[in-house]
Queue: 2 jobs
Job 1
Amino acid sequence: MLRLEIVTPEKKVLDAEVDSVTVPTASGEAGLLANHAPVVSAMKPGILTYAVKGSVEKMVVAGGFVEMNNNKVSVLTDSAETAAEIDTEAAKAARESAEKELAANASSAIELTDVTREQLEAANARIQLAAGK
C-alpha cells in the first residue's frame, strides 16, 4: 500500500491509502507502486490516476511536483479536480483562449508559448476527464 497525499495552495485535496498511482510527468506517465525507488519529478498538466481496492479514481492536476519516498507519494500542484468538480464550459473556453493565443503568437517568445501550451494541456485534460475518458 501507498500513502497518497495531494496538496494545493488552498487545501489538502486527498490523503488516502492506495494501491498504485500514475502521474503525468514531463517525460510521460509514471506508474508508482509500493516499494518503488525514491523519486522526485516535475509534473505536467494532465490526469492523475490512482487505484484503491480495485476501483480506479482520476483527477486533473495542473502540473507541479511529485515525490515518492518510503511508500508515500506527495503531489504538490496548483489545482486538482475530480470529474464532478470540472466546469466543462469554462474548460472549453480556456482551451479556445489558449489556442487563439498560440495561433496569434506563433513566432513570439518561447516562454509565452510554453505557458500557453501548459494552459492548453490543462484545459484538454479537464475536458477529457469530464467526458469520462
Job 2
Amino acid sequence: MDEVSDFRDELPSIQEAFPAAAAGLSAYLSALDDLPGLDRRTHELVRLACTVVLRSGPGVQRHAQLAAEFGASWQEVLGVLVLTQPSFGLVPAREMLPFARAGYEAGRQAD
C-alpha cells in the first residue's frame, strides 16, 4: 500500500492551529454518529462515498475502517467505490482504492 504510506498531509493540523475550533468540530462530528434513520454500518458507508468523491485518502481509510468495524464486508466497501463512478468517474474510485483497502483491513483486525 505505497500510496497510503506515501501520503503526506501538507496542511497544518487544525488541532494545533485552532484548538477551540477543532474541539467544536469534533463534537459536531460525534453528534452525527447518533443520527436516527441509518444504522452505523450504513452511516459509515455513506460517509465513505462522500470521502471518495472528495478524494480524501485519510477520510476514505477512516470510514472504510469504521464500516468494517460495524460489520461491512469488503464487497460492500468496494461496491461504494464502484457506485461513485457513474457520477464522478473512474479516477477518484481508483485513487482511493488503496486507502479503502488499508482501512478495511485495519477495521477487520480491530474485531
